[in-house]
Design goal:
The chain has 281 residues and is of the alpha/beta class. It has a domain of 169 residues: NAD(P)-binding Rossmann-like Domain (Rossmann fold, 3-Layer(aba) Sandwich), CATH 3.40.50.720. The protein has 13 helices and 9 strands. The strands form 2 sheets. It has a 7-stranded parallel β-sheet, with helices on both faces. The chain is globular and about 55 Å long. This is SDR family oxidoreductase.
Length: 281
């Protein structure tokens, strides 16, 4: 049995779709916080088990009979270490034999503040004694696509990444890499996953101009000013600060990788920026 945490989340849904191409639904377990949201999964024959990252006892129950676990990192930045500890301890108690974890690109040397909790989780996995694989995911292109409507409205795409190169990929690309959960021979491996092509936010603005027919310019802000702009647009403080810090980290190379490991792992090219922008216009 293969279990996926966060199965109804944005990445989790893509993972489920990919696994169903090669794995019978009866071999999958969707671990979710809200079973009502998982009704479509249940209707397809996937076992749905309720457990919150914060509840180790519920997680232990949910993981009974599970051989392999895909631990999709929690979305609650600042609480991830404790939540991931609960999942790992539950996996130990349930005698799970293998874990794949969605970490962060070059987590061990990343300038992004996000890296801290991923590093702590990687350490806990190493100490757990459970064979595991690290899927160090780069940035989701969707994180920038969310800013496209505002850019089209105002003619300006704002950020704090300077001329930092961003080797992003779509969630569907990263989800395809979760194939390691059903294959043998990946235990002990660390995969640095990123898109095939790297681009700057200036280049994103240029491509948006090309596709939309409206002149879009990139305006680079300081991390503080970018965070303030995001908060002014209605984003929660924590999310705004995280996005601004990640942009600043991109300026230092934190979102760049040219190993093409993701492409090799999934057996196809990753989704290009051009294709990604086209999907939202």
């Amino acid at each position: 049995m293969i279990a996926i945490t966060g199965a109804t989340g944005q990445l989790g849904q893509h993972v489920i779709e990919n696994l169903l191409k090669t794995t019978p639904a009866s071999h999958l377990v969707a671990i979710v916080r809200n079973p009502k949201k998982a009704a479509p999964l249940s209707q397809r024959g996937i076992a749905v088990r309720q457990a919150d990252y914060a509840n180790e006892a519920a997680l232990t129950t949910a993981l009974q009979g599970v051989d392999k676990l895909l631990l999709i990192s929690s979305s609650e930045v600042g609480q991830r270490t404790a939540q991931h500890r609960n999942v790992i301890q539950a996996a130990i108690a349930a005698k799970v034999k293998f874990i794949a974890y969605t970490s962060l690109l070059h987590a061990d040397k990343s300038p992004l503040a996000l890296a801290d909790e991923h590093i702590e989780t990687e350490k806990m996995l190493a100490e757990s004694g459970i064979p595991h694989t690290l899927l160090r995911n780069g940035w989701y292109t969707e994180n920038y696509l969310a800013s496209v409507p505002a850019a089209l409205k105002h003619g300006v795409f704002i950020g704090a990444a300077g001329e930092g190169k961003i080797a992003s990929a779509m969630r569907a690309d990263y989800a395809a890499a979760a194939r390691v959960i059903r294959e043998e021979g990946h235990a002990g491996n660390v995969y640095e996953l990123a898109g095939d092509d790297a681009w700057t936010l200036s280049q994103l603005a240029d491509e948006l101009t090309h596709q939309s027919g409206k002149k879009i310019v990139y305006q680079n802000l300081s991390e503080v000013d970018f965070a303030a702009a995001l908060k002014g647009a209605g984003l929660p403080d924590g999310l705004a600060d995280m996005l601004a810090n990640s942009d600043a980290g991109a300026a230092k190379g934190g979102l760049f990788d040219d190993s093409h490991t993701l492409r090799k792992l999934i057996g196809r090219p990753t989704t290009t920026l051009t294709e990604s922008l086209r999907s939202v216009l």
